[in-house]
Write a structure and sequence with these properties.
By secondary structure, the chain is an alpha/beta fold. It has 5 helices and 12 strands.
Length: 193
């Protein structure tokens, strides 16, 4: 399958899960993330809000809030086309819908945290392989935003979040793809570096 076909196939697979399967997977995702020492020791954590059948992050988010972690959500940058910003998120955050219909904190009401100062970024994905390659939705937002992480210095740990059913044997890796530290699924934690 080419990337377009693979995206269509994997999105159909995850959307086919029933409510009970999704709820169970959300609990198991939290268990998998807790296995990561990066998760345990991170204070500033970015996570996405679930959309389009992605593995549910709401259980994970509530757990982080109970632990007193500082949470951030990705937001489409209003000036840097194709880039993300990370804005603080809590129960009082003023939310709006972006051009894709995804809820995000209002850029005008919050101050962005530079990605390099976030300890851990949990990223959505459409598919992943045994080497830790990630196939996203195709917009390149995370790859452009996190391109700095290829250089030495302070950088966040990157963990993809997915259902185990999104795993495939091999994905083509592009030069611009940002490598992940791990991928957390409903079946466990796959570590890569």
């Amino acid at each position: 399958m080419n990337k377009t076909e693979l995206r269509r196939h994997m999105r159909r697979q995850r959307r086919a899960l029933n409510r009970r399967q999704r709820q169970q997977a959300a609990q198991q995702l939290l268990h998998s993330l807790r296995q990561s020492t990066h998760f345990q020791h991170s204070r500033h954590i970015a996570v996405y809000l679930t959309n389009d059948g992605e593995i549910d992050t709401s259980v994970f988010i509530r757990d982080l809030q109970r632990r007193g972690k500082t949470l951030y959500l990705p937001v489409l940058h209003p000036l840097r086309k194709g880039h993300l910003s990370f804005l603080p998120f809590n129960r009082q955050s003023r939310m709006i819908k972006n051009r894709f219909g995804i809820s995000e904190p209002d850029f005008a009401s919050h101050r962005a945290m530079p990605a390099r100062f976030i300890n851990l970024i949990c990223m959505p994905l459409v598919a992943f392989d045994e080497s830790g390659n990630r196939l996203g939705m195709g917009g390149g937002f995370y790859d452009r935003t996190l391109a700095f992480s290829r250089q030495p210095g302070n950088k966040p740990r990157l963990i993809g979040c997915a259902y185990e059913l999104q795993k495939t044997a091999a994905l083509p890796a592009e030069d611009w793809d940002i490598p992940l530290t791990a991928i957390a699924t409903d079946a466990g934690l796959h570590r890569f570096c």
